[in-house]
Every structure is written in C-alpha cells, then in structure tokens.
Amino acid sequence: MSPIGRRVALRVEGFSKTYTDHAAVQDLSFEVEEGEILGLVGANGAGKTTTLRSIAGILPLQAGRVVIRGHDLIEHELNAKRELAWIPDDPQPFDNLTVDEHLRFTAALYGAKDWESRAEQLLTTFELLEKRQALGGELSRGMRQKLAFCCAWLHKPGVVLMDEPLSGLDPRGIRSAKVAIRDLAREGSSVILSSHLLELIEELADKLLIVHKGRKVFAGTLTELRAQFSTAEGSLEEIFLAITEPKGT
Ligand code: ATP
Fold first, then answer.
1. For residue range 91-120, what is the model confidence (pLDDT) as tens digits?
2. Potential cystine with 83: which of 37, 40, 47, 69 (Cβ 3.0-4.6 Å)?
3. Looking at ligand 1, which residue's alpha carbon is closest to its atom 3?
4. Which residues on neighbouring strands pair with residue 192, listed in sequence order?
C-alpha cells in the first residue's frame, strides 16, 4: 500500500539496460499506484522506450526487478503479462486480419469474457465502427493507433504502457483518447504515458517520472517538482528544459 492507501500496481526496482557497451538506463526504480497516470518524460535517447519495452517483456529484463500487480515479470511471466497492455508509438496490426478479427483475437488471447459490448463501445469512442471489416493493412496511421487503443482497453488491463499514444491522431481522436485514458484510470487501471507533449502530461498525469541520460532525475507530482526546483508557477516545459539543459550552454 502507498502512504495514502492505494495499492502499488507496478513496481520497478533497480532496472538497468545496456546495449552492447552503451548504458541506456541505469538503476531506475519507481512505482505506479492503482488508478494513477504516470507521465514519463525525457529528451530523445533518455531511455523511455527501452524502459517501457523492458517492462512489457519485449526486451529481456537485463537487470533489476519488475512486479506487475503482485506478479514478478520473470518468475510469473504469464500472470504478469495478463495484467499488461502495451501501445507502441506506431502500432502495426496484422495486415490480413480485420478490425473485428483483431478484437476477437485479443479477447481470446487474454481470455476476456463478455467483451463484445465493450468492443462496441470502444469502436464507437474511437470512431472505428465503419472500419470494422477493414483489414489491418488498409488502416491509416491514426486508425492503427485507435485500433491499438481498442485492443489494449478490451481486457481491462491492470497496467497500460503508452509510448507517444497521441501521435498520428486527429483532433477528435486526441480528445477521445484523453477522455478514454482518464476513464481507464478511473476504472482502476494504472497508466504510464510517455510523451514529449508536456502540455498533455501536465493535463493528464497525476505524477511525473523524469529521466535524463538513462537516470531518474525526478519522481513525484508537479507541485513537488515546482517545490524542488524553487519555482511556484513554472510550467513543466520550463522546468524540463532547465533540468535537461546541455552543460556549458
Ligand atoms: P526518444 O524520445 O527519442 O524515443 P527514448 O527516451 O525512448 O528516446 P530509447 O529509445 O530508450 O530512448 O534509447 C535510449 C538509448 O539507447 C539511446 O542512446 C539509444 O541510442 C540507445 N538504443 C536504443 N535502442 C537501441 C538498440 N536497439 N541498439 C543500440 N542502442 C539502442
């Protein structure tokens, strides 16, 4: 339990990842509580995608520990992954499956019960009803993103990892996605939202995790961030730029 009584849904302890001889992430630890939206922020190459892909089990966990809703990612991989949904920044659906077939396949994969009405609701939210018979290979970039949301949301995941989830969406899609992300958290899912859109992070995130050159430089609320960097009013963008300013400029 956290100090205010919400359960921890995701715990990352001492995570590190090295590509050949380059340390991409070093000794990263953080927690996300149930129903919380964590904004993951960092410059290009800071290690955000590496972290998300490792939590999702797409990259082998090189060092450290990941516990998802009480299931250790290494010791209880299947149970941990059952609780997880991952939305990459450019989702690639199966070329030869229709939108409907993607949802059916996802429901079967996760053993979701009574999923049809939720699928209908999600297709409506993300304006994909007219595309339900379209093949994955026929979808535009934004539509692929929307289908990824629908598939990820379908089984009511405990923890959702999103890498730049709004890139490619039209204005109405962005609005729907923001509302859907909030609703998902309200239903109890924990969300990690990685984005360079700092206004989006300010708008949606309950807490922030700022990484710089593979290391955690801050974890907490925006209010705590402002207190730490002695600025009562500063926007996340201003503080972020100050933290990540290259030395010598
Ligand atoms: P961006 O905001 O640009 O998406 P990021 O924070 O997601 O960046 P990562 O993609 O995690 O950053 O990359 C972290 C570091 O690891 C970078 O220095 C990158 O060059 C390196 N890296 C990432 N993937 C690989 C790979 N497959 N092989 C070697 N190095 C990699």
1. 999 999 999 999 999 999 998 888 999 999
2. 69
3. 44
4. 38, 161
User: How far does residue 24's CA lie from ligand 1's centre (Å)?
Assistant: 7
- pTM score above 0.90: yes
Residue spans of alpha helices (H) in 8-157: 48-55, 77-82, 99-110, 116-125, 141-154
Q: Which residues pair with 31 in a beta bridge?
A: 11
Q: Residue 26 Cα, ligand 1 centroid: separation in angstroms?
A: 13
Q: Is the pLDDT of residue 4 over 70?
A: no
Q: Give the tokens for residue 46.
A: 């800071």
Q: How far is CA 130 from CA 50, 91, 123, 135, 154, in A?
A: 35, 20, 9, 12, 18
Give the model confidence (pLDDT) of 167-180 as tens digits.
889 999 899 999 99
Let me know how many helices (H) and strands (E) the chain has, helices first: 9, 10
Averaged over 178-190, what is the pLDDT? 93
**CA 116 to CA 113: how far, in whole Å?**
8
Answer positive or negative: Cα dihedral of 60, 64, 69, 72: positive
